[in-house]
Structures are given as C-alpha cells and as structure tokens.
Write a structure and sequence with these properties.
- The chain is 40% helix and 24% strand.
- It is α+β, with helices and mostly antiparallel strands.
- The protein has a 4-stranded antiparallel β-sheet, with helices on one face. It has a 4-stranded antiparallel β-sheet with strand order 10-5-11-12.
- The model has no long low-confidence stretch (mean pLDDT 95).
Length: 373
C-alpha cells in the first residue's frame, strides 16, 4: 500500500496517517479483502472510512444532523430550495465493486457477509461494469433485516433502496437528481422523492409529509440541498420516536441514556412547534407514556416468570456459508446469538436467529432479587 498516496487522498500527512494506525485505525482481515477502517471520526475523516489493500478508499457516510425546531432550522440552514426524500428504517450500507466482486460495508466499515449476499442478488453487474468507481449508499429494509426488522415496506424479505452515490477516493456525493436518474437507469429502488420546496414554505409541507408517513408507521424525511451546498438534515415522526422508545425500554439496559432522552425531547419540541391543542398534546403524551411503560413491564414480567429477554429475527440466504460467516460477524460485533438449524426454502435457506440481550437480562434479574438501582 502506498501510504503517501493514501494520506494525500485522506487529506492528511503520511506521518499523521502512521500515528492514526496506532490509535483509531483497525485492521480487518476477515472476510477478504483485508482492509483498514476508522473506528472514530478524526481529522475530518468520518468513522467507518475504509482503506483497502490496493489503496482505494471508501469514505464513511457522514452522520446527518437533526433539527428540533423544523422551520427555524430550515431558515437558518438552507439557502433557497429544499429537496425532500423519505428516511427509511433499516441499516445503512455502502455497496461497491472491488477486484470485480461486489461487497457491502456497514456504517462502521465492516464487510457484512449477509448484506454482501443481498447486494450481489439485487445489484445488476452492469452497474459496476459501467461505473467501477461508484459507491452506492443506501438502506436495506424489510422483515428479514437482522439489524432492524421492519414489515412496513413492500417486501417479505429484504430490499435495498438507494439514497446517495459516492465515488471511491473522493468525499461527497453526486446529489439528489443524479442519484434518482442513476436508479432509474439501472432499475434500482430508490428512496421516495417528495419534491422540492422553497425554504419559506418548506416547513409546513414537510410537516404534512411527516404526519402522513407517521400514520403509515414510517420513519420520516431527509432534507437536502439539490446542489449539495450544505449537508442534509433529517426529521422524524412522533410514531418513530415512540417506536424507538418501545424497543429501547424493552431492552432498557442495553441502550445509552442519550437514546432515551433525545427521543423524549424531540416530542416536546415537535409538540410546541406544531402548536398542538391540549387534546392533541395529551394524545401525544399517552403514546409516549405507553411506549415507555408497556414494553418495560413486559420485560420485567417475562424475567419474573423465568424467561430470557431475547430478540428474534430471521434471514434468508442462498449459501449456508453466508449464514456461518454472518454468525461470526455478529459475534465479532459483540452480539450474542443462537442460530437455529437452517430450513430449506425456495432454493435457499431460512435461518431463524435469537439475539441474546444479556445486559438487560442480568440487570432485570438482579433488580428482581433486591439489588439497588
């Protein structure tokens, strides 16, 4: 690997790159190809940035910031036009071709065996034959998503939705319109595009879109500058906030405190900005309270009855080796699982997975036995 060239592409000195290799850059030798990945953001380089053995770089997908007061943030952030797309509820992947093989990177910069098999099934080879340096940024969603299982999308398995296109060795993306044109050219699914609005009227239009999405159980929107002049912003529905809290309180000792607080705070700001009536606010409070209390009570009662607190998901694979590799991938990510015997299914295999939520299990049992909080 030519360190000088890699450092130049990263925008840092070779000496700085060597120093980072001793601190936050980690080597991943499995699955092939070998790579180096940034565990944390540093020097303007996003976490999840990957350097392959051949010196090619795939920059991490940047975190998208979130406004709490929608209208004020739009006025402050955007110059004129706001393009609005759906924010989908799944897991973020970057798909690329390396040495003629399609691979899928997680947000953290690991090659995910399961996501890679899905990508090889869903992405036509012609995409990378014509554009070998492109990186497809998107969301994998569906009920057979082992990270975020969700049955609100039109698939009984898992699909990939494109929301951005990047280039190897370069920061930034191609923008809203080129992304959707690219998806149409190659027959790829893309996140829904709701239109472009002048920033003076965008907040009210986005509010109505988010309300409608919330009624459908969907997550929210991403707001982008059509010319990529400023970074995108995201904004979610109350339904999503409550759904997130319901999951988090079911596994309450496995989530960081900020996860709980941030979603409750979002509800307060949204209620104020939308100038809700007393009746509407009480309905919101009821939904918020139920999302906190009911799953927590279920967890406590399950532990009280001697049941383990678990999360059940499933995947569908063509190769049993993919399932074995995915089991190892979850283990190296610190996720303890039980993979049930494979069930032959339509030329492939259905794999049912039980994810063990150990911290919540242990904490709940200890509290039931009289331990102090």
């Amino acid at each position: 690997m030519n360190l000088a060239r890699v450092a130049q592409r990263l925008g840092i000195t070779e000496c700085r790159l060597q120093g980072l290799q001793e601190t936050i850059i980690r080597e991943s030798a499995w699955p092939e190809p070998r790579l180096l990945r940034f565990e944390k953001e540093t020097s303007g380089i996003e976490a999840g940035t990957v350097i392959f053995e051949n010196g090619e770089i795939v920059f991490g997908y940047p975190k998208i910031r979130r406004p709490l007061m929608l209208a004020a943030a739009i006025k402050r952030h955007f110059s004129d036009i706001v393009a609005v797309e759906e924010k989908m509820n799944g897991h973020n992947v970057r798909i690329l071709s390396l040495n003629g093989e399609i691979v899928a990177l997680t947000r953290g910069g690991f090659i995910c065996p399961y996501s890679t098999e899905v990508a090889r099934r869903l992405i036509p080879e012609s995409v990378f034959e014509k554009h070998p340096h492109r990186v497809l940024c998107g969301e994998m969603v569906g009920p057979e998503n082992p990270y975020v299982a969700n049955d609100i999308y039109p698939t009984d398995s898992i699909d990939f939705y494109l929301f951005d296109i990047a280039e190897k060795n370069h920061r930034g993306t191609l923008g809203v319109h080129k992304t959707h044109e690219f998806a149409q050219e190659f027959g790829l699914l893309a996140t829904a595009f709701f239109g472009e609005f002048r920033k003076e009227s965008a907040a009210e239009r986005i509010k109505q879109i988010v309300i409608k999405l919330g009624r459908q159980g969907r997550e929210g929107v991403v707001m982008k500058d059509p010319e990529n002049i400023v970074p995108p912003l995201k904004y979610t529905s109350s339904k999503t906030n409550c759904s997130d809290l319901a999951v988090a309180f079911r596994y309450y000792n496995d989530y960081a405190l900020d996860f709980f607080v941030s979603r409750a705070v979002r509800e307060g700001y949204q209620s104020v900005e939308w100038n809700e009536s007393e009746e509407e606010r009480r309905a919101r409070a009821l939904s918020l309270g139920e999302s906190i209390l009911l799953p927590l009570v279920d967890t406590i009662k399950s532990a009280q009855q001697g049941e383990n607190i678990v999360q059940k998901v499933q995947i569908r694979v063509k190769s049993l080796q993919t399932a074995r590799d995915f089991e190892y991938h979850l283990r190296r990510s610190g996720i303890r699982t039980i993979f049930e015997p494979p069930e032959p299914d339509d030329g492939g295999y259905l794999i049912r997975i039980t994810k063990l939520v150990m911290s919540t299990n242990d904490k709940t049992q200890a509290l039931l036995e009289g331990e102090m909080w």
